Hints:
Bound molecules: guanosine-5'-monophosphate, zinc ion
Mean pLDDT: 95
CATH topology: HIT family, subunit A
Number of strands: 5
Amino acid sequence: MSADCIFCKIVSGTIPSKKIYEDEDVIAFNDINPSAKVHFLIVPKSHIDSLATCELQDQALLGKMLLLAPKLAKEQGLAGFKTLINTGVEGGQEVFHIHLHVLGGGNKMPKSLA
Ligand code: 5GP
Ligand code: ZN
């Protein structure tokens, strides 16, 4: 838990969220400012700043996050989806608690990465 971290506060319930999944290691909730019809975030409960600060000990957790994406996307009614992990300020990361974006729904998603 990091005192000033928005996602740690969502994990602890201090800040409300539209949660779609939770287990002992991770939670998933809808993005407050969605970029697609369906846009949720898969977030570890433990605080890790970013993909760039992950270590070998985080390998299983990262795998779990990635494998949850298709399961939750299917539950949300998505036939296909995009995944995204913004890393560092130059990578577009705004919340420094690692999270996997899952986006889809509506029209075919654009190829653009920007
Ligand atoms: P990043 O740019 O760090 O990859 O993405 C951060 C994401 O978190 C953004 O898409 C933003 O809309 C979302 N976000 C920021 N604050 C909150 C919040 O308080 N609640 C929820 N549900 N999403 C948030
Ligand atoms: Zn945090």
